[in-house]
Amino acid sequence: MRYISTRGDQTERSFCEILLEGLAPDGGLYLPVAYPTVDAATLARWRGLAYAELAFEILSLYIDDIPAADLKALVAKTYTPAVFGTEAIVPVRRLGDSGLLIEALSNGPTLAFKDMAMQLLGNLFEYELGRRGEQLNILGATSGDTGSAAEYAMRGKHGVRVFMLSPHGRMSAFQQAQMFSLQDANIHNIAVEGVFDDAQDIVKDVSNDLAFKRQYKIGTVNSINWARLLAQVVYYFAGYFQATKHNDEVVSFTVPSGNFGNVCAGHVARMMGLPIKHLVVATNENDVLDEFFRTGTYRVRGSAETHETSSPSMDISKASNFERFVFDLVGRDGARTKALFGDAIAREGAFTVSPAEFSAIAGYGFQSGKSTHADRLATIRRTDERFGDLIDTHTADGVKVAAEHVEPGVPMIVLETALPAKFAETIREAVGREPGRPAGLDGIEALPKRFTVMKPDTAAVKAFIQAHCAD
Ligand SMILES: *Cc1c(COP(=O)(O)O)cnc(C)c1O
């Protein structure tokens, strides 16, 4: 499989060529030149496979520059019950007679769905860097889930170091403990005295210094990485097989969304021929995406308009993966995609698709809805009371919106993107008790912490990277 940019550059690249890259050189995102489609016989065969085997089959369709035996081994060591807690890896459970099902994607090491992709990325990076004899210094900013997932995926990996910036004192005690208790020599936590945007600005500054970036081999693991998106396609298939008995049945998915990475993987699965009726995008108060699917206008928000909510991993001002869907929506017209994202967004911070484009959205199965703090609390409480099922705040946004879109005879699968233990404060507010923690995580707040506090100063962060590059 070859990959091209969404903004018109037709240069074709292989999977491993784009694996360690961020944006394409023209500023677009990478997508396969065409989605491979899956016929009925293949779908029937896949139904019986274990998760790692299924992952291998799907990844093989997109990766032709890693020998099959190596890819199989990488996938097999990634998706194990030891790492993800169950034989099924992504077990699906029913919420009573509501017509809703929950697919658990958050039983990995950091209790959020980002582990599903990041754990594979860690193994792919180590493999590819080893093959090239290269090193990579991953630089990122996090307010929680992404940073911890990246660190747990990259800890102890050869050829990779992680420099993760976070706003000092602003993550939850649990999230800090998760990240700062890592003692691996290749993991560096930098607590910036400022807010998330200060940390993010430093990462941008460093990345814009091309000479520094090249000399110190700076890379990222953000959600636009194609390999992350690809890894997520697998659990749409796995969820479908668990929720149905035969491949002539259709299901819908509701996806708690921020950067549109998770639900974009659902779009890819549907384009491959998985029988998905609707892909329901659930947002919180940061409703950039809900607004688009209702009106056809995509308007990015400024930081003053970006709300801090109780489902914080969905607090985004723009949806960085959204361009991939729009590229398909406009008939894979790179010039049109560039006019929308490169020009209109840069000029006005917004665009509106044409009436014809807007009416084409339905053909891709997309629907949307939004949820607020009050909805979240009510949904967590009601799901706990009615079904004895305690869900996290992001999943609650999904369940709230899913209930508004469920249709008779069509199983509605809500993706569980985090465990309630990660967001204890809101859970207490909703149900008046403490969420349980998976075994082994009790008392992690008391573990010794390893982190460096710094002023929000790009030069200081660069000096820190230089000093630790030889470790
Ligand atoms: C990252 C995250 C999301 C949003 O996923 P996107 O791929 O950005 O849409 C939702 N819930 C949780 C818990 C997350 O960590």
Automatic annotation (TrEMBL):
GO terms for biological process: threonine biosynthetic process. The modification N6-(pyridoxal phosphate)lysine is found at K114. InterPro entries: Thr_synth_N, Thr_synth_N_sf, Thr_synthase-like, Threonine_Synthase, TrpB-like_PALP_sf. SUPFAM superfamilies: Tryptophan synthase beta subunit-like PLP-dependent enzymes. Its cofactor is pyridoxal 5'-phosphate. One of its GO terms (molecular function) is threonine synthase activity. Belongs to the threonine synthase family. Keywords: Lyase, Pyridoxal phosphate. The lineage of its organism: Bacteria, Pseudomonadati, Pseudomonadota, Betaproteobacteria, Burkholderiales. It is an enzyme of class 4 (lyase). It comes from the Bacteria. Its EC number is 4.2.3.1. This is Threonine synthase. Gene3D superfamilies: 3.40.50.1100, Threonine synthase, N-terminal domain. Residues 2-79 form the Threonine synthase N-terminal domain.
